[in-house]
Fold:
Amino acid sequence: MLAGASIHAPAALPRWVEELPRGRPIVVYCICGFQVSGRAVTELRQRGYDARALVGGITAWHAIGGMTVPLDTATYEEAS
Structure:
């Protein structure tokens, strides 16, 4: 995952969205950067966040040699 990132289930967005900072851009990414991150960005923008998608997801980030840290699932919450 990206350093400083937190992992959240997109389907559980209503439960964790208010934890996000409002005064700065939010970067959203998934494995390949398609529907999952796109839907999350749309939802966040509708709620007034400055959200952007990492084009190509974490796969593209790895391909260009971007730095990552081990996956930390402490903030992940399954949708119910």
Observations:
- The two ends are 24 Å apart (CA to CA).
- The mean pLDDT is 89.
